[in-house]
Write a structure and sequence with these properties.
Largest sheet: 6 strands, antiparallel
Strand content: 35-45%
Radius of gyration: 16 Å
Strand order of the largest sheet: 5-12-1-8-7-10
Order of helices and strands: EEHHHEEEEEEEEEE
Length: 205
């Protein structure tokens, strides 16, 4: 899958770019014990100081691994695009479960200036990291592919708010990919990046 991002030119920040992402919510239908556990996770993150937020995000994502057997059956999949399932919305943190069929991937994007956490529950995941070629006060304006890597089941990854990446389910994966994400609310909308050059602008990822 990494060959999709050949390093033969810059990717520009885009105002309008589809990521083939389907947004759904399960927050009002969660089993009460799971909802209570997720709420405690959100409370802990929201009460943590900004300086140590990345560490708390990673610890929270790892501790919720104990509930993988409950979370996995909740994942949803769609041939039209990967599915972002909102599990719980806090005041400043969202918890999401994402389902990816083999070959599905996100847009190239950042996370709006706030760090985020993701953990792989099932499937063969890949991630492509991009490096900045040009920046302004909001982050990268143009990027190019750098490191491509496989993410292992059980692996937890923290990404800085201005880091630019894409991820998805490898075409060779023997089963769909399921990933758990913790997204703090962002000071700005995330940017996505595409090949054509257009004026810079925000777009939710």
């Amino acid at each position: 899958m990494f060959e999709t991002f050949s390093a033969d030119g810059a990717w520009q920040r885009e105002p309008q770019l589809s990521s083939s992402c389907l947004e759904r919510s399960l927050s009002s239908h969660l089993p009460l014990p799971l909802r209570s556990t997720l709420q405690r996770c959100v409370d802990r993150i929201e009460q943590s100081p900004a300086a140590g937020r990345a560490r708390v995000l990673k610890e929270a994502a790892q501790e919720l691994a104990a509930f993988d057997s409950i979370l996995l059956p909740l994942a949803q999949f769609d041939p039209q695009g990967y599915v972002r399932l909102l599990l719980l919305e806090g005041r400043s943190v969202d918890l999401l479960l994402m389902g990816w069929m083999p070959g599905q991937s996100s847009a190239v994007h950042d996370h709006g200036g706030e760090p985020c956490a993701l953990r792989i529950l099932q499937g063969e995941a890949w991630e492509q990291i991009f490096v900045s070629l040009d920046e302004d006060h909001q982050g990268a304006c143009a990027v190019e592919p750098a490191l491509g890597r496989k993410l292992e089941v059980g692996e937890t990854v923290i990404r800085a708010g201005h880091a630019v990446h894409a991820m998805g389910c490898a075409e060779t994966s023997p089963e769909p990919l399921v990933s758990f994400h913790i997204y703090p609310k962002r000071p700005r909308s995330p940017f996505v990046y595409g090949r054509s050059c257009r004026p810079a602008g925000p777009k939710a990822s």
